[in-house]
Structure formats: structure tokens, C-alpha cells
């Protein structure tokens, strides 16, 4: 079973920020910003590149969850970034789809 599936099934503990029927959001263990939360689908999906049109609702749930996380953690006024890393060149290290929600500091563009 993959790492994030183990977090979903509570075999590995995590600091959960938000949970719905389809989605779990928890703090990143190696934060890159004062607020760094990962939003994942509970159902295993390797990456955005493995998604199909039938996953549209699930992807929408993830984006709405990201907004709710940002509100909950006080990022609404200052702004924040949401990021999918997809595959090797983007530096995806965990092969379970996850949306990074980053905030609490100003960020550079373009990302490295
Ligand atoms: P990425 O590089 O886009 O695949 O991001 C994977 C993120 O997952 C990375 O920022 C660190 C985080 N991470 C890895 N293992 C764990 C873990 O066991 N618990 C938590 N909370 N986060 C983890």
C-alpha cells in the first residue's frame, strides 16, 4: 500500500486539517512555507496525469478542499499557492495524487 494510502487508513499518523468523504488534507511533514498542507483523494490515483474525465468531480472536490484549508488556516486575505507536481521533472516524490497548499509568506515566480 502506498504512503498516502496508509495515511488515509490511519496506519501512518498525520496532522489532519480537513476531511470529507472523498478527500483528506493534512500538514506536510517537510513544510516549505509557514502553511504547507497536502490535499489528497482518499481513493488512490498516481498523479494528475493518471486522471480521466470520470475523475472531474474528485478533482473539483480537491480544489474546493484547498480553498477551505486556506480559509481555515487564515490565508484568504494574504493569498496562497496551490501546486500539483506531476512526474519526474516536476519533482513528484510520492506517487499518490496530492495538491500542495502553500502560504504564510510571499512567493517567487516562476518556481524553481
Ligand atoms: P511531492 O514532492 O510533490 O511528491 O510532495 C510530496 C510531499 O509529501 C513532500 O512535500 C513531503 C510530503 N511527505 C512525504 N512523506 C510524508 C509523510 O509521511 N507525512 C506527511 N505528512 N507528509 C509527507
How does this model look, in words?
With 112 residues, this protein is of the alpha+beta class. It has one domain (3-103): HIT-like (HIT family, subunit A, 2-Layer Sandwich). It has two helices and five strands, in the order H-E-E-E-H-E-E. The protein has helices at residues 3-8, 56-72, and strands spanning 16-19, 23-27, 35-41, 80-83, 99-103. The model has no long low-confidence stretch (mean pLDDT 97). It binds 2'-deoxyguanosine-5'-monophosphate. 2'-deoxyguanosine-5'-monophosphate binds at residues 3, 12, 14, 26-30, 38, 85, 91-94.
How do the helices and strands line up, and which of them pair or pack?
Elements: H1 3-8, E1 16-19, E2 23-27, E3 35-41, H2 56-72, E4 80-83, E5 99-103
Antiparallel strand pairs: 1-2, 2-3, 3-5, 4-5
2'-deoxyguanosine-5'-monophosphate binds next to strand 2.
Provide key terms for this protein:
2 helices; alpha+beta; 5 strands; globular; binds 2'-deoxyguanosine-5'-monophosphate; single chain; about 110 residues
What is the overall number of helices?
Answer: 2
Q: What is the CATH H-level superfamily?
A: HIT-like
Q: Into how many domains do the coordinates divide?
A: 1
Structural class call reads alpha+beta
Radius of gyration: 13 Å
Shape-level CATH architecture: 2-Layer Sandwich
CATH class wording: Alpha Beta
Tell me about the largest β-sheet: 5 strands, antiparallel
The CATH topology corresponds to HIT family, subunit A
Query: What order do the helices and strands follow?
Result: HEEEHEE
> Are there runs of 5+ residues with pLDDT below 50, and where?
none
Tell me the span between the first and last alpha carbons. 31 Å
Ions, cofactors and other ligands present here are:
2'-deoxyguanosine-5'-monophosphate
Q: What's the arrangement of strands in the largest beta sheet? A: 1-2-3-5-4
Mean pLDDT: 97
How large a portion of the residues is in β-strands, by DSSP E?
15-25%
Backbone shape = globular
Number of strands: 5
